[in-house]
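Is this the right way to post C-alpha coordinates for a design question? Let me know if I should format differently. Anyway, here goes:
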Protein backbone atom coordinates (compact mmCIF):
# COMPACT_ATOMS: atom_id res chain seq x y z
CA UNK A 1 0.00 0.00 0.00
CA UNK A 2 1.26 3.54 -0.74
CA UNK A 3 2.51 5.49 2.27
CA UNK A 4 0.25 8.17 3.71
CA UNK A 5 0.90 11.21 5.87
CA UNK A 6 0.52 10.97 9.62
CA UNK A 7 -1.79 13.44 11.42
CA UNK A 8 -0.17 16.87 11.36
CA UNK A 9 2.54 15.82 8.87
CA UNK A 10 3.45 17.51 5.58
CA UNK A 11 5.45 16.65 2.47
CA UNK A 12 7.86 19.45 1.54
CA UNK A 13 9.78 19.54 -1.75
CA UNK A 14 13.04 21.51 -1.74
CA UNK A 15 15.62 22.42 -4.36
CA UNK A 16 19.17 22.91 -3.07
CA UNK A 17 21.70 25.01 -5.00
CA UNK A 18 25.14 23.45 -4.48
CA UNK A 19 26.97 26.70 -5.30
CA UNK A 20 25.07 29.18 -3.13
CA UNK A 21 23.92 26.73 -0.47
CA UNK A 22 20.34 27.98 -0.77
CA UNK A 23 17.54 25.48 0.00
CA UNK A 24 14.35 26.70 -1.66
CA UNK A 25 10.90 25.34 -0.75
CA UNK A 26 9.14 24.53 -4.03
CA UNK A 27 5.93 22.79 -3.01
CA UNK A 28 4.23 21.49 0.12
CA UNK A 29 1.19 19.30 0.74
CA UNK A 30 -0.71 18.22 3.85
CA UNK A 31 -2.78 15.79 1.76
CA UNK A 32 -0.42 13.75 -0.44
CA UNK A 33 2.72 11.97 0.77
CA UNK A 34 4.85 12.48 -2.31
CA UNK A 35 8.36 11.09 -2.75
CA UNK A 36 11.53 10.78 -4.82
CA UNK A 37 11.87 13.83 -7.08
CA UNK A 38 13.26 13.52 -10.62
CA UNK A 39 13.92 16.27 -13.17
CA UNK A 40 12.73 16.39 -16.75
CA UNK A 41 15.21 17.96 -19.22
CA UNK A 42 13.12 21.16 -19.32
CA UNK A 43 13.59 21.65 -15.55
CA UNK A 44 10.18 20.31 -14.50
CA UNK A 45 10.17 18.20 -11.33
CA UNK A 46 8.18 14.98 -11.02
CA UNK A 47 7.31 12.96 -7.89
CA UNK A 48 5.26 9.90 -7.00
CA UNK A 49 2.47 9.67 -4.44
CA UNK A 50 -0.55 7.45 -3.77
CA UNK A 51 0.75 4.97 -6.37
CA UNK A 52 0.66 7.68 -9.06
CA UNK A 53 3.18 9.96 -10.80
CA UNK A 54 2.89 13.76 -10.88
CA UNK A 55 4.42 16.83 -12.46
CA UNK A 56 5.03 19.60 -9.94
CA UNK A 57 3.59 22.85 -11.28
CA UNK A 58 1.13 25.10 -9.44
CA UNK A 59 -0.05 21.85 -7.88
CA UNK A 60 0.45 18.17 -8.57
CA UNK A 61 -0.53 17.32 -12.16
CA UNK A 62 -1.02 13.59 -12.70
CA UNK A 63 1.02 11.91 -15.43
CA UNK A 64 -0.98 9.15 -17.10
CA UNK A 65 0.67 5.77 -16.45
CA UNK A 66 -0.92 4.05 -19.44
CA UNK A 67 -2.39 1.10 -17.58
CA UNK A 68 0.66 0.42 -15.41
CA UNK A 69 -0.11 -0.89 -11.89
CA UNK A 70 0.35 1.42 -8.90
CA UNK A 71 4.00 2.50 -8.64
CA UNK A 72 6.44 2.99 -5.78
CA UNK A 73 9.22 5.57 -5.30
CA UNK A 74 11.66 3.99 -7.80
CA UNK A 75 11.36 5.90 -11.08
CA UNK A 76 13.93 7.29 -13.52
CA UNK A 77 13.64 9.66 -16.48
CA UNK A 78 15.23 8.66 -19.80
CA UNK A 79 18.00 11.03 -20.98
CA UNK A 80 15.83 12.31 -23.85
CA UNK A 81 12.96 13.09 -21.46
CA UNK A 82 10.39 11.20 -23.50
CA UNK A 83 10.02 8.20 -21.20
CA UNK A 84 9.92 7.61 -17.48
CA UNK A 85 10.74 4.13 -16.22
CA UNK A 86 8.88 3.09 -13.08
CA UNK A 87 8.85 0.20 -10.59
CA UNK A 88 5.32 -1.04 -9.97
CA UNK A 89 3.64 -2.88 -7.15
CA UNK A 90 3.64 -6.13 -9.12
CA UNK A 91 7.45 -6.22 -8.87
CA UNK A 92 8.16 -5.25 -12.49
CA UNK A 93 9.64 -2.22 -14.27
CA UNK A 94 7.62 -0.41 -16.93
CA UNK A 95 8.33 2.25 -19.56
CA UNK A 96 5.76 5.07 -19.57
CA UNK A 97 5.63 7.72 -22.32
CA UNK A 98 5.71 11.19 -20.74
CA UNK A 99 3.43 12.52 -23.48
CA UNK A 100 0.81 9.82 -22.96
CA UNK A 101 0.22 6.35 -24.32
CA UNK A 102 0.24 2.77 -23.09
CA UNK A 103 2.91 1.62 -20.67
CA UNK A 104 5.26 -1.21 -21.64
CA UNK A 105 6.66 -3.84 -19.29
CA UNK A 106 10.45 -4.03 -19.54
CA UNK A 107 11.37 -6.79 -17.11
CA UNK A 108 11.20 -10.56 -17.37
CA UNK A 109 9.50 -13.10 -15.12
CA UNK A 110 12.10 -14.48 -12.73
CA UNK A 111 9.66 -16.20 -10.40
CA UNK A 112 6.97 -14.93 -8.02
CA UNK A 113 9.46 -14.03 -5.28
CA UNK A 114 11.68 -11.83 -7.46
CA UNK A 115 11.13 -8.05 -7.44
CA UNK A 116 12.77 -5.36 -9.58
CA UNK A 117 13.57 -1.99 -7.95
CA UNK A 118 14.71 0.56 -10.52
CA UNK A 119 17.35 3.16 -9.71
CA UNK A 120 19.29 4.19 -12.81
CA UNK A 121 19.47 4.51 -16.58
CA UNK A 122 22.71 4.63 -18.57
CA UNK A 123 23.73 7.99 -20.07
CA UNK A 124 22.94 6.74 -23.58
CA UNK A 125 19.49 5.57 -22.47
CA UNK A 126 19.99 1.97 -23.56
CA UNK A 127 20.29 0.16 -20.21
CA UNK A 128 18.52 0.22 -16.85
CA UNK A 129 20.21 -0.55 -13.53
CA UNK A 130 18.01 -2.12 -10.89
CA UNK A 131 18.13 -4.00 -7.62
CA UNK A 132 16.87 -7.55 -7.88
CA UNK A 133 15.33 -8.81 -4.63
CA UNK A 134 14.78 -12.52 -4.15
CA UNK A 135 14.23 -14.89 -1.27
CA UNK A 136 16.47 -17.91 -0.83
CA UNK A 137 14.74 -19.86 1.92
CA UNK A 138 14.33 -17.28 4.67
CA UNK A 139 17.21 -15.11 3.43
CA UNK A 140 16.47 -11.84 1.64
CA UNK A 141 19.06 -11.39 -1.13
CA UNK A 142 19.55 -8.13 -3.07
CA UNK A 143 21.98 -7.66 -5.96
CA UNK A 144 22.70 -5.16 -8.71
CA UNK A 145 21.32 -6.13 -12.13
CA UNK A 146 20.96 -4.47 -15.53
CA UNK A 147 18.53 -4.95 -18.40
CA UNK A 148 18.18 -3.30 -21.85
CA UNK A 149 15.65 -0.46 -21.70
CA UNK A 150 14.01 -1.92 -24.79
CA UNK A 151 13.66 -5.28 -23.06
CA UNK A 152 15.91 -8.31 -23.26
CA UNK A 153 18.16 -10.48 -21.15
CA UNK A 154 19.03 -9.47 -17.58
CA UNK A 155 22.68 -9.26 -16.49
CA UNK A 156 23.61 -9.85 -12.85
CA UNK A 157 26.33 -7.35 -11.88
CA UNK A 158 26.89 -8.32 -8.22
CA UNK A 159 26.49 -11.87 -6.93
CA UNK A 160 26.75 -11.99 -3.15
CA UNK A 161 24.66 -12.11 0.01
CA UNK A 162 25.37 -8.55 1.13
CA UNK A 163 22.49 -6.06 1.18
CA UNK A 164 22.97 -3.91 -1.96
CA UNK A 165 20.69 -1.05 -3.04
CA UNK A 166 20.46 2.22 -4.97
CA UNK A 167 22.24 1.14 -8.18
CA UNK A 168 22.74 4.20 -10.40
CA UNK A 169 24.96 4.85 -13.42
CA UNK A 170 27.68 7.47 -13.30
CA UNK A 171 27.78 10.11 -16.06
CA UNK A 172 30.36 8.24 -18.14
CA UNK A 173 28.39 4.98 -18.04
CA UNK A 174 31.51 3.04 -16.98
CA UNK A 175 30.55 2.71 -13.30
CA UNK A 176 27.42 1.83 -11.35
CA UNK A 177 27.21 3.49 -7.92
CA UNK A 178 25.37 1.76 -5.08
CA UNK A 179 25.21 1.30 -1.32
CA UNK A 180 26.08 -2.00 0.31
CA UNK A 181 26.61 -3.66 3.67
CA UNK A 182 29.66 -5.57 2.42
CA UNK A 183 31.84 -3.49 4.77
CA UNK A 184 29.46 -3.78 7.74
CA UNK A 185 26.73 -1.13 7.90
CA UNK A 186 25.70 0.50 4.61
CA UNK A 187 28.40 2.56 2.88
CA UNK A 188 28.79 3.85 -0.68
CA UNK A 189 30.54 1.88 -3.41
CA UNK A 190 30.90 1.80 -7.15
CA UNK A 191 31.44 -1.14 -9.50
CA UNK A 192 33.05 -0.93 -12.93
CA UNK A 193 30.72 -2.42 -15.50
CA UNK A 194 33.48 -3.84 -17.70
CA UNK A 195 35.31 -6.00 -15.16
CA UNK A 196 33.23 -5.86 -11.92
CA UNK A 197 36.03 -4.08 -10.02
CA UNK A 198 34.56 -2.59 -6.79
CA UNK A 199 35.72 0.56 -5.01
CA UNK A 200 34.52 1.80 -1.61
CA UNK A 201 33.69 5.53 -1.50
CA UNK A 202 32.70 6.18 2.13
CA UNK A 203 33.78 4.66 5.44
CA UNK A 204 32.41 6.40 8.53
CA UNK A 205 30.17 5.87 11.53
CA UNK A 206 26.94 6.84 9.72
CA UNK A 207 24.73 4.62 7.55
CA UNK A 208 25.04 5.92 3.97
CA UNK A 209 22.52 5.26 1.18
CA UNK A 210 21.55 6.16 -2.37
CA UNK A 211 24.57 7.75 -4.08
CA UNK A 212 23.49 10.16 -6.84
CA UNK A 213 26.38 11.28 -9.10
CA UNK A 214 26.00 14.76 -10.60
CA UNK A 215 25.58 14.75 -14.39
CA UNK A 216 28.91 16.58 -14.79
CA UNK A 217 30.74 14.08 -12.57
CA UNK A 218 31.85 16.73 -10.08
CA UNK A 219 30.32 15.19 -6.93
CA UNK A 220 27.87 12.73 -5.41
CA UNK A 221 24.93 13.65 -3.19
CA UNK A 222 23.62 10.98 -0.83
CA UNK A 223 21.41 10.24 2.17
CA UNK A 224 23.12 9.59 5.51
CA UNK A 225 21.28 7.96 8.43
CA UNK A 226 22.31 7.98 12.12
CA UNK A 227 24.72 5.27 13.29
CA UNK A 228 23.02 1.94 13.91
CA UNK A 229 20.08 2.58 11.56
CA UNK A 230 18.83 -0.59 9.90
CA UNK A 231 17.73 -0.24 6.29
CA UNK A 232 16.41 3.12 5.12
CA UNK A 233 13.37 3.81 7.30
CA UNK A 234 10.85 6.62 7.01
CA UNK A 235 10.17 9.41 9.47
CA UNK A 236 13.33 9.58 11.54
CA UNK A 237 15.28 12.56 12.80
CA UNK A 238 18.85 13.56 11.93
CA UNK A 239 18.75 12.28 8.38
CA UNK A 240 21.51 14.20 6.61
CA UNK A 241 22.13 15.03 2.99
CA UNK A 242 25.84 14.99 2.21
CA UNK A 243 28.01 15.85 -0.77
CA UNK A 244 31.06 13.76 -1.68
CA UNK A 245 33.42 15.74 -3.93
CA UNK A 246 35.70 14.34 -6.60
CA UNK A 247 38.71 14.73 -4.30
CA UNK A 248 37.03 12.81 -1.45
CA UNK A 249 35.86 15.73 0.71
CA UNK A 250 32.50 15.22 2.48
CA UNK A 251 30.30 18.29 2.96
CA UNK A 252 27.26 18.41 5.25
CA UNK A 253 24.37 20.05 3.39
CA UNK A 254 21.34 19.78 5.68
CA UNK A 255 19.73 17.72 8.43
CA UNK A 256 16.07 16.82 8.15
CA UNK A 257 13.17 14.64 9.30
CA UNK A 258 12.54 11.98 6.68
CA UNK A 259 14.48 9.11 5.13
CA UNK A 260 12.47 6.81 2.89
CA UNK A 261 11.19 8.92 -0.01
CA UNK A 262 13.54 11.84 0.65
CA UNK A 263 15.91 11.17 -2.25
CA UNK A 264 15.62 7.58 -3.53
CA UNK A 265 16.32 8.21 -7.21
CA UNK A 266 18.42 10.47 -9.49
CA UNK A 267 17.50 13.95 -8.32
CA UNK A 268 20.03 16.30 -9.97
CA UNK A 269 19.03 19.13 -12.26
CA UNK A 270 20.30 18.60 -15.83
CA UNK A 271 22.96 21.33 -15.41
CA UNK A 272 24.32 19.85 -12.13
CA UNK A 273 23.68 23.11 -10.28
CA UNK A 274 20.92 21.81 -7.98
CA UNK A 275 19.26 18.72 -6.61
CA UNK A 276 15.79 18.11 -5.20
CA UNK A 277 14.68 16.32 -2.04
CA UNK A 278 11.62 15.85 0.18
CA UNK A 279 11.21 16.27 3.94
CA UNK A 280 8.28 15.07 6.07
CA UNK A 281 8.00 17.38 9.09
CA UNK A 282 5.42 16.78 11.78
Amino acid sequence: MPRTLRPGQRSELYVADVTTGEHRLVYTSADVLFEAPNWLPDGTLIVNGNGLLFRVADGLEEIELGGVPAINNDHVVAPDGRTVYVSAGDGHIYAVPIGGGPGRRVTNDRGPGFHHYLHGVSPDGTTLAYIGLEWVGERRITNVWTIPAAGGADVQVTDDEFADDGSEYGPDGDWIYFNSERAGQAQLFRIRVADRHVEQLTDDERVNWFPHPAPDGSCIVYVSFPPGTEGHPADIDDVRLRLLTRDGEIRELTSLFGGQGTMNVPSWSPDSSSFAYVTYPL
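Format looks fine. Someone answered above. Worth noting: The mean pLDDT is 97. The first strand starts at residue 11 and ends at 17.
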